[in-house]
Structure formats: structure tokens, C-alpha cells
Amino acid sequence: MAPLAPSRSHPAAAPTSALWAGAIAQPATEFAATTLPVLAGQLPAGLRGTLYRNGPARFERGGTRVGHWFDGDGAVLRVHFDGDNAVGTYRYVRSAGFVEEEAAEQCLYRGYGTLPPVSIWQRWQTQIKNAANTSVLALPDRLLTLWEGGLPHRLDLETLETIGLDNLAELQVSDTFTAHPKRHPRTGKIFSFGLVPGGNATLKLYRLSATGAVEKTSSIPLAGIPLIHDFVLADRYLVFCVSPVRLSPLPALFGLSSFSDALQWQPQQGTQIIVVDADSLEAIALEAADPWYQWHFSHSYLDFDGTVVFDVVRYNDFATNQYLREVASGQTSTPADAQLWQYRIDPKTAKILDQQCLIDRHCEFPVAFGHDETATTYLNVHRTVPTPVDELFGAIARLDPKAGLTVADAGEGRYPSEPIAAANPANPQQPWVLTVVYDGTEHRSELWIYEGNELEKGPICRLGLPEVVAHSFHGTWVSE
User: Fold this and answer.
1) Is 290 helix (H, G, I), strand (E, B) or coil?
2) pLDDT, tens digit, for every residue of 63-115?
3) 3-state SS, residue 182
4) For residue 455, what is the DSSP state?
5) What pLDDT score does 256 carry?
6) How many CB atoms lie within 10 A of CB 337?
7) How far does Cα 260 stand from its chain's mean position?
8) Are the C-beta atoms of residues 36 and 78 closer than 8 Å to each other?
């Protein structure tokens, strides 16, 4: 396949001197299936399966740069391990918007935080591009790339060829589908949701078969138009925490502002906790709580006493949105710290029974390994405390319920992605952890593999990627 932009040399005109900005200064370059060289250490013989990662990889077209990190065109990294070798592939998702803008060589669509370079009278007529850039869902016969403002895109599991939009056998073209579906660990059923806009939005719930076909839907009315990115699955309950962010719809609808700029922080409304029965998909409890904002939840479970416990990366306000907007420019200056908190609620009333801070330092992208109170959480943290506002995460960490927090510093100028746990069949309590690392000092990307319980010892294997992979959001591991 033809590359979309060269990336062998360091970009000559990065948006800023920040080392991490080199990974997004120019459009990422695709690469076909390539055996990855071992730069250090050794591939674990038992590591067999496939890593998929998705993230925004093209931020400029025709001289126009997107206005938010969320608006870059999505590209998927696939790395397959067969016990002897690791083979990597990296391809853009060929959404309709991507193909059209590629042909026109200019920005034609609106995005979450981007307006096209046309007159204000033309903006309201421009469509919103499905960037397909946030996460992935691996199904037996296809890979879905997820972007919560629209339907998923279907990709070939091996070649990453884009086949088209996927309606999951029932959804409408106007439906949306979260970037964070949850698979039930016992039944294999997949739970998801989407927001239906209107004067007051509707939360549309989906339960899917293990193969990705919608089996049941329901709807819950909401107050205003909130921003809901993730939710909790705890055995027979779903939990939604609706933070007090509301969209001012008219400016966004008529192109007077981007959707990002039209979102307002309204702390007086508090956070609403909604508990849903996973079988009927009906809301069974609603309760107000103090205001906070979250993008991501971590592990959750139904405790022996019938209470629901969940971990959440909690922000005190919505400044995180401005910080993420600045990432696209290559220069960040807005403080937006979050900590990992644990909540215990009564699912019959949605009342908070207990809450505690688990990690009192800025963290994000939590990934749980396990499904009960013994689960381990892997996530990204900064190398130092207090948080450097002009840096991206430079370390991964492991939170063990008994041993506490262990931090693996990637080193100066190195930026690891969300850490993904891969089960070790020979040692179920000791997973491998995989993270894609951008080395800003060398302008290259690598894939690092750790022993999950011994992060502090550093990676046991480092693999070289043939091109720079842009900072990505979310991924998944599929065992053979």
C-alpha cells in the first residue's frame, strides 16, 4: 500500500519543542505486515495472540489542522504473536469522510472540536465525520473500530482492510455506539450504549450476542444533552455516572461553535448515578451525587453483600476537555489532574455507601485484569509528582489491592500508551503487559512487553516498529 506521508526523518516543523509532539506533527505512515525486530530481551514463547490499538493519526489536511485530539483520522495497529515472531500492521480506517477528504486534499467535515475552513453560512450544512479513532472491539469474524458519535466501522481482522459501517444487524444509520462496550466475563454477552440527541437526550442501551448481533435494546430519558463516554458493568447491573456537562445545542447545530466549545460545565446539577438491570435493561435506581467528571472507569464487581463496587478516574471539573484540545496543537498548558477513586453503592437505591481515593496522583487509561476485589489495575501515570502540565504520560503503573502502586518509568522523552494485559496460560496470576512507546529523542515507536507483576524490572522485550505510531487511545488483546 502507498504510504500517506514520509516519516523516516524527524519532522522539520513540529508544532512545539515538546518531544511527545513529534508523534503527531505529521500524518502517520501506514505499513504492511512486517516482522518486528527484537531490539532488546526476548519474546515470551507463551505469548500467542493479537494486540489491536486504535487512535487518531492524521491531524492536518490542506493546511488546516484539527482543533481537538479527538478529531484525528483513526488508524489501527495490529501486532500478531505466534510464539516465535511478532508481525505488525498499521492502517488508517477508510471512513467515508477520510476517503472524501483524501481525494479533495482538504478538510471538508466538522468534528468534535473542529470546524471546516468555510464561511459561517456553509458550516451548518457540513456533515460530522465519523473519525473511527477511539477504540476497538474484536469479534470472531471482524474487528470493529469505535467512535461514539456514530456506528462502528468493520475491518478485516488480519489485513485491517476497511469493509464499511457495521449496524450490528439492527442499528439505524443515525444511531451511536459507545467506544467502551463491556463483555460479560461469565456469559460473553456484550453491553453497550449510545446517546440519541434532542431537546433532552435519550440513553439508548444495547445488549449484544458474543458474536456482535444486537439482541435487545431499551431507552432511558436524560435531562439535557450530557457527555457520557464510559459506564460500569458489575455482574447483573450497569451503572452510569452522568456528570454535569451539558451541550448548548443551537451553536453546535448551526456551526457557530464546535461541539467541544458548546459543552458547558454545570456543577450545580451534580452527578447523577443511574443503575440499570442488565437483564431487562430497565433503570431501577437514580440518585444525585456531588459533581465530578470522568472519561473512564476501571474494574468493577458485585460484592458478596449485594453492593456494587467500581473504580473511576475522577476529575474535579471539565478542564480535561481543554487539555485534550491542546494536545492536537502539540503544546499543553491547562492543568487537568485526575485521581483513581473507588465507590461502593447500593444498586437498589444508587446511593453512595463509601468512597476512597486509591491513587492520589494524576492517572488515566485504566485497564483491569480480573473481575473481583482481587483485580489488578494497570494504567498510565506521569514520571514525576506534581504533574508536569506540558508533558504526556511517561510511565505505566500497576495497582495491586494488597501491594499498592508500582510505577515503571519509561525514561525521559519516552511516552507509553495505555497498558494492555495479556493472559499467560502457564501462569494465570502473572499476565504480560504490552504498551506502545514513542521515543521522542529518537523519533521512533517501539512495543514493550513487561511481566505484569514485575513492572519495576523494566520490559522483558522491546520490539521495533517500522514507522512512528501516533499516540493512541485504546486497545484490546485477543488470545489464541
Assistant:
1) coil
2) 999 999 999 999 999 999 999 999 999 999 999 999 999 999 999 999 999 99
3) strand
4) G
5) 87
6) 19
7) 17
8) no
Distance CA 129, CA 59 (A): 13
* Residue from 79, 32, 93 nearest 51 by CA: 79
Local confidence band at 14 (pLDDT 50, 70, 90 cut-offs): very low
Written as nine digits, the cell of 401 is: 489491592
Beta carbons of 54 and 135 less than 8 angstroms apart: yes
Which residue segments constitute the domains of the chain, with CATH numbers given? Answer: 19-479 (2.130.10)
182-188 own/partner pairs: CB under 8 Å, 24+ apart: 182/231, 182/233, 183/210, 184/233, 184/235, 184/278, 185/371, 186/235
Residue by residue, DSSP assigns 343-384 as EEEETTTTEEEEEEEEE-S-EEEEEEESSSTT-EEEEEE-SS
Give the C-alpha separation, 330 to 471, whole Å.
12
Phi-psi region of 331 (alpha: psi -120 to 50; beta: other; left: phi over 0): beta
CA dist., res. 357 & res. 359, Å (int): 6
Is the Cβ–Cβ distance between 353 and 275 less than 8 Å? no
Grid cell of 4 as nine digits = 500517506
- Mean pLDDT over 147-168 rounds to 97
Neighbour tally for 179: CB within 10 Å = 23
Q: What pLDDT, on the 0 to 100 scale, is given for residue 371?
A: 86
Residue 13 has pLDDT above 70, yes or no: no
C-alpha–C-alpha distance, residues 55 and 75, integer Å:
6
CA distance 202 to 267: 21
pLDDT averaged over every residue in the chain: 94
Residue of 11, 48, 42, 50 whose CA lies nearest to 28: 11
In angstroms, the CA 216 to CA 187 distance is 15
What is the phi-psi region of residue 411: left when phi exceeds 0, alpha when psi lies from -120 to 50, beta otherwise? left
Average pLDDT on 372-377 reads: 93
At residue 316, φ and ψ (nearest 5 deg) are: -75, -20
pLDDT digits (tens, 9 = 90+) for 309-343: 999 999 999 999 999 999 999 999 999 999 999 99
Cα dihedral value 308, 314, 316, 321, nearest 10: -130
Give the predicted TM-score (pTM) of the model: 0.95
Q: Is the pLDDT of residue 183 over 70?
A: yes
The C-alpha cell that represents 381 in the structure block: 501515570
Q: Tell me the C-alpha distance between 180 and 129, whole Å.
A: 19
